[in-house]
User: Fold diguanylate cyclase from Sphaerotilus sulfidivorans.
Amino acid sequence: MTKDIATLLLALLLCHALLLVHLLTVRGTVLGRRPEIRLLLLAMLAICVGDLLLMWRQQLSGPLWLLLSNTSIALGAVLLSAAARCLLTGRSFSRCDLLLLLGGAIGLALLLMQGAAYAWIVSWVNLWLAVLLLPILWRVMRHGRERALRMVLVGGLVGGLSAMARAADPHLATQAPVSLLQPTSPLSAWLFLTMSFGAFSIMFGLLMASFERSAAQLEQMATTDGLTGCLNRGATRTLVGHEIERSRRERRPLALVLLDLDHFKRINDSHGHAAGDAVLQGFAQAVRSRLRHSDIFGRMGGEEFCVVLPSTDRSGAHEVVDALRREVEWLVVEQPGAVRLKVTVSAGTVVFDPLAERMTPSADQLFARADMLLYRAKHAGRNQVQTSGWVSLNPL
Ligand SMILES: Nc1nc2c(ncn2[C@@H]2O[C@H](COP(=O)(O)OP(=O)(O)OP(=O)(O)O)[C@@H](O)[C@H]2O)c(=O)[nH]1
Assistant:
């Protein structure tokens, strides 16, 4: 297979330019506003400029061209490293990256000023690029969670090893290298190809990892209540539907609880909305701390919450919910000015037992029953739990 470096370089430039255009098109969107995407955009820009300078080698020959083209590509590598750092740790440029960029550029300038042989310049540039990839690999190994980051690891290893081999290649070749466009052996053209593949894999992997993270964040925002960290109404209702189905299939009981803070309006009215919010947060934390990992806890709106207890029968559910009620009774929410807020909660608990009841309720039917029991608890004086089975509405 013949590999003409000029053609490879053109193909590479086109790939980089395409990625740059894609990054430009997401600007202004939720994805485009992510700081690592901005850094990736700048990295692609620097790399495209470096590619262009390499391609114009014939027109712009000389030490300045060598310095500019390679520094531009190295700057692209540092921007990639900053994008990886930003994605993984929330911080961008590290002093280490900037020192590596500056040190490499000064070293290259000194070699060029001394008129060093082209073979040594090739070695220096490739070692420089290999070293610039190390912080990316280190960060991904240390902090990486997203699956797309595996592409970054593969790219970093392939790119780094190829760059090191390219650094050694001019000293092993029988003929001295004179230009990037005239490879000294078929191996050097291959190494150019694998190094480019590595760099491209890093960029693409970082881009995909950023998309993966945005998707996870958007999903969390769409299913979570921002104030209390509980599931929101939509997500809770969906999960209740799944749990009813599971309970029917596995023939295990299921308890659905609606909890509503008592006289919550008074807290808002006498201490302000911020104090009300603090009470809601304290309440959510207190309830969450008493629940099992498999239980579901969601905020249905305002001061109404829902708890789903899988594999829990009627007496077990009543016990658990009454313990939650007592926990809330003991809760004290401290506010500025030594204000200590206390609150109580009423609960309606409905239990579906597939072994005792032949008819499987829908989520809406269970919610309606729990709501009716909650209403009873409110009217019977608040700060209490009303529990019943799904079919028989006799309180426990
Ligand atoms: N601080 C705060 N208040 C909220 C929020 N959502 C709803 N509220 C308030 O919660 C109060 C609910 O009042 P009501 O529905 O009358 O219920 P209550 O005062 O708890 O009375 P009972 O339920 O009958 O014991 C209203 O004042 C709402 O403005 C919120 O996110 N933060």
Summary: The pocket of guanosine-5'-triphosphate is lined by residues 227, 260-265, 268, 273, 276-277, 280, 302-303, 378, 382 (CB under 6 Å). The domain at 233-389 is CATH 3.30.70.270 (Alpha-Beta Plaits). The first helix runs from residue 5 to 25. The mean pLDDT is 90.
